[in-house]
Fold:
Amino acid sequence: MAEQIVAGPTAAAFAAATEAARDAGPTALPAFAHAADAGPMLEAEELARHFDVSRPLLQRLFAGEARRILRAVDGVSFSIPKGTTLSLVGESGCGKSTVARLVVGLYPPTRGRVIFDGQDLAQARADSAQRRRMQMIFQDPYASLNPRWRVQDIIAEPIRAFGLVTDRGAQRDRVAQLLTQVGLSPLDGEKFPHEFSGGQRQRISIARALSSNPEFLVCDEPTSALDVSVQAQILNLMKALQRDLGLTYLFISHNLAVVRQISDRIGVMYLGRIAELAPAETLFTAPRHPYTRALMEAIPDLDMTGRKRIPVGGEVPSPISPPPGCPFHPRCPLANERCRAEVPALLPARGTPESVVACHAVEEGRDHIEAPLAVAAALS
Structure:
């Protein structure tokens, strides 16, 4: 549902919390900035991942059922320049977390490929020197931390696994440095995960991810389990680390206020495909895809302008039996016969060429007659 995407503070409220966290936050890293390299750190080309969710063969034979294939990701393409952040947003089940697992090699793609710094991902993961350059920060910090290990052992595990530091004293020094870098005390290394708050656990997860000296981090909803003020502290920490270390992020979230604060570009996913990909501010000031525009209209209006606000209605179709043509056409007020028969390509939008949109209405210029509120009203 759309409310799952926009749940949480508006951009203005979140920005205020971010400023407060920046002023009072415990972390202070060097302020110099790294210019983003022109070359891409990561490229996804027609990436797809399908899951066979059929019943066992004998049961299907007796019931006369065909195989059931769930198309979690179905032809996603994007690139992330070095030193920048690409965020993926979308309703639950749209495939954004599956994309995150595909780009770090946790799932093999059904088709398409991932290029990591000019090298095929399968080849890169076979080389430990390349594999250590990518790490992942998970949604639930407590579930991703071993409750039986002390924090210093958790953070030191990648250091030992990749053989970065062999001397135990040097390992302890590196762990202490990482804890300090994420705003914790070196003495916290002696504690267990259950002794920390949610925000502190996420800082430990970030320290563990940084311990292998990575260049690319996949962040799978790292702030969704945290309250607003702690979210702001974690985002400020991640932005400071990006400036200091030149990191590249793929950020997964369902909170539009969060991604607006941290992103250079934002991709809106719908039913396993990217509906719109645009610079962060362009997406918020000039959304083009009818789905994106309806999501923007669903953001709560804390300024109380009195304007009627209608969230996106209906449900996402099943990825097991997606509709033909454009996957959004059953909920789209601009759909015509072409939309029902032909899958739209991701093309530069008229008037905002920095945005690429998969929409026949935008391609044909039929979107300008519909105000975003009218689109949202038609979807309800």
User: Anything to note?
Assistant: The first strand starts at residue 40 and ends at 52.
